[in-house]
Each structure stands twice: as C-alpha cells, then as structure tokens.
Amino acid sequence: MTLSILLLGLPGGMEWVLILLAVLLLFGGRKIPELMKGLGSGIREFNNAKNDVKKHIEDGMKEDNSKTKTEEK
CA separation (Å) from 54 to 22, 34, 60? Predict the structure, then answer.
C-alpha cells in the first residue's frame, strides 16, 4: 500500500518534459552545461569520499583481524 502511494507522487513522462522546459527557460541554454558540469563534479567527489571511507573501514577490519590472529598464537 505504501509503495502505491509513493509511486503516485513521482512525476511521469509529460511532467519531466515540463520540468526540463522550465529549467531551460530559467537557466538558458548556456548555463545548463555549467550546471551539469557542477553536478558531475559533485557526484564524482561524493563517490571518491564514499570509496575512501569504505577503504578505511576495510583497512581497519584487516588490522583488527591481524591483531586478533597474532594474539591467539
């Protein structure tokens, strides 16, 4: 039931066309590439930060496992 309520709030095909036209009118054709470039760099920075956190967690887990194994011997 909650899934059907959630899906009712999402824009359909025609709504996306209207949203894109509104963005085009508000920002103009020259500003859209700059906007997309900024969005892309933001996504890239987010993914880099996510990968760094994941690497730190995995390194910490490996370090804990190696400490436990040396203490057991």
Answer: 39, 30, 10
User: pLDDT for 9-39, tens place per residue?
Assistant: 777 788 889 988 888 888 888 888 888 899 9
Closest CA to 52 of 63, 41, 60: 60
DSSP string, 2-70: HHHHHHHTS--HHHHHHHHHHHHHHHHHHHHHHHHHHHHHHHHHHHHHHHHHHHHHHHHHHHHHHHHHH
How many structural domains is the chain composed of? 1
User: pLDDT digits over 56-71, tens only?
Assistant: 999 988 887 776 666 6
> Residue 52 belongs to what domain range?
2-72
- Region of 10 (left: φ > 0; alpha: ψ -120 to 50; beta: rest) is beta
